[in-house]
């Protein structure tokens, strides 16, 4: 929003901080428990940030709807209404994410197991911080709006007839509205109006619903066909940069040596006295017999 009072910049920043706290808590707990930290775990914060911001938007949207329905209610009832609307959705998404990653801990690959442990635990902390830390931030932001305070400085914003001589830019940045009215009179967000009045009725049209069913059927059929075409394995070329020397190496290896099958390596697991001539002859004789 352009309003200097209804603007929720700090609220959004606190939502990101909530996700960051979840990452710090989970990483600290896992490291304290001795779970190995592998390179793939470094990707976990981006997943947690996506889920944390999604939960933040759900909480804010539920708070806005509750505040519009109960303009004269106290903070306790507003927060209770917000949790009643948002907590179920946040809980279900968190449970599915945590279940998916904790199932991944059954894998035989240690790196994948560590990644799933770190990320699944981070989802749990993200859920806890969303329902505790971010809920408190919502209340503080509501009190700031009720006090008609600026979003950046939190100083009271004066709204009255004595501002008529100021420019529109000054009134928008320092008062909250070019019309010199209290920004708390702002109505429903335009995006909410679009989905409620235009997008929703458009989707509920019977022909659009039929089209959606057909499109989903085509998508489902293509997905099933794609699953039948999946082949196990990995091309090592895809793990290197496009300009890496590894790519022409594997190209030449396939071109000149693929007909000979896999390489056979002999590993000597015991201590060997290579300075002893008889031992060296024995190793050479063993190699010749293998050949």
UniProtKB/TrEMBL annotation:
Keyword Transcription: no
Keyword Transmembrane: yes
Family from the record: Belongs to the patched family.
Protein name: PTHD3 protein
GO cellular component: membrane
Domain of life: Eukaryota
Annotated compartments: Membrane
Chain ranges of the SSD domain: 1-140
Keyword annotations from UniProtKB, A to Z: Glycoprotein, Membrane, Transmembrane, Transmembrane helix
Family matches, as PROSITE patterns: SSD
Transmembrane segments: 9-38, 44-63, 83-109, 115-140, 207-226
Mode of membrane association: Multi-pass membrane protein
SUPFAM superfamilies the UniProt entry points to: Multidrug efflux transporter AcrB transmembrane domain
Main location: membrane
Pfam family, one: Patched
């Amino acid at each position: 929003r352009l309003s200097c009072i209804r603007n929720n910049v700090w609220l959004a920043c606190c939502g990101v901080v909530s996700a960051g706290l979840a990452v710090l808590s989970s990483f600290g707990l896992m490291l304290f428990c001795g779970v190995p930290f592998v390179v793939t775990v470094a990707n976990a914060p981006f997943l947690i940030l996506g889920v944390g911001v999604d939960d933040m938007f759900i909480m804010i949207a539920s708070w806005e709807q509750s505040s519009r329905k109960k303009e004269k209610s106290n903070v306790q009832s507003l927060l209770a209404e917000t949790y009643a609307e948002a907590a179920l959705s946040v809980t279900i998404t968190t449970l599915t994410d945590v279940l998916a990653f904790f199932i991944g801990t059954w894998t035989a690959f240690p790196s994948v197991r560590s990644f799933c442990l770190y990320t699944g635990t981070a989802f749990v902390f993200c859920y806890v911080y969303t329902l505790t830390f971010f809920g408190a931030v919502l209340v503080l932001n509501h009190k700031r709006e009720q006090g008609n305070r600026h979003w950046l400085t939190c100083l009271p914003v004066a709204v009255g007839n004595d501002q008529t001589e100021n420019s529109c830019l000054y009134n928008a940045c320092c008062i909250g509205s070019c019309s010199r009215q209290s920004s708390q009179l702002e109505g429903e967000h335009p995006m909410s109006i679009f989905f409620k009045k235009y997008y929703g009725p458009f989707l509920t049209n019977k022909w659009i619903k039929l089209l959606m069913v057909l499109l989903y059927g085509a998508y489902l059929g293509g997905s099933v066909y794609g699953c039948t075409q999946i082949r196990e394995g990995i091309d090592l070329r895809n793990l290197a940069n496009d300009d890496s020397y590894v790519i022409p190496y594997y190209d030449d290896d396939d071109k000149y040596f693929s007909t000979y099958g896999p390489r056979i390596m002999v590993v000597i697991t015991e201590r060997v006295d290579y300075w002893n001539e008889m031992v060296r002859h024995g190793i050479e004789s063993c190699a010749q017999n293998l050949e």
